[in-house]
Amino acid sequence: MSLEPAKADPVKVAKKVAAAPGLKLPPEPSYDLLPDGRVANYRMQSMGLKRKLRNRIGQVLWNLVITHIPFHFIRQGYLKLFGVTIGKNSCIMLGTSILDIEFLTVGDNTSIGSRCLLDARAGLYIGNDVTIASDVQIIGGGHDVNHPDFLPVPDPTVIEDYVWIASRAMVLPSHIQRGAVVAAQAVVNKDIDECTIVGGVPAKVIGKRNPDALKYRGGYRPLFC
Fold this sequence. Notes:
By secondary structure, this protein is an alpha/beta fold. It is 16% helix and 26% strand. A seven-stranded mixed sheet has the order 4-7-10-15-18-20-21. It has a five-stranded parallel sheet with strand order 3-6-9-14-17, sandwiched between helices. Strands 5-8-11-16-19 form a five-stranded parallel sheet.
C-alpha cells in the first residue's frame, strides 16, 4: 500500500501566489517509495547539491554570525547576496533567525523586529509597510502526524501590505490580508481577512481596522539595531 505524503492545499497555495506574485516557492518535495509503501529518501526541496549548499551555508552563517552584526547595510547586503528579495527602506533587526533565506521576500518600508523567526522553507512573502514586532515566529509548515514517517508538510505564508503583527505572536502557514492586525501573543492558524484584528490562542476576530488609516509609510530603522 502506497502511503502518499500530505501536501499543502494546492487551491490555497494558488490563491497565495495570486495575491503575492513575488512569493518564491521552493521546488516541490520528492521521495522514493519502499516496497512496503513507506517513504525513503524524502527531499523537502528537490534542488541540486550546489544550490542546497549555498542555501545552507547562507542560513548557518546568517543565524550564527551575521544577524548579530549591528549594521543594517552589512546584514542587508549579505541577505541579498544569498538570494533574499528585500525592498527599499526595509530592515530585519538584530538576532532574527531565517530558515532557507533564498525563499524570503520582503517589500518596501517594512520593519521586522529583533529575535524573530522567519521560516521561509516553504516560501515566505512579507509585503510593503508591514510592521512585525520583536519575538514573532512565522512557521513554514508542519508534519503529517498520521503518516508513519512523520513527514514535513511545507506550506507558504503570505503577509500583505500594512499588516501589523505584535510582539510574541506566532503565525502558522496562512494568508494575512492587507491591513490586518495580529495582537500580542496570538497564534494565527488560519487566513485573516483584510483590515481584521485578531487575538488569542487560537486567534479569533476581535475588531476591525479603518481602511482609511492605511496611508502611513513604514520603515522604522533605528541605528545599531
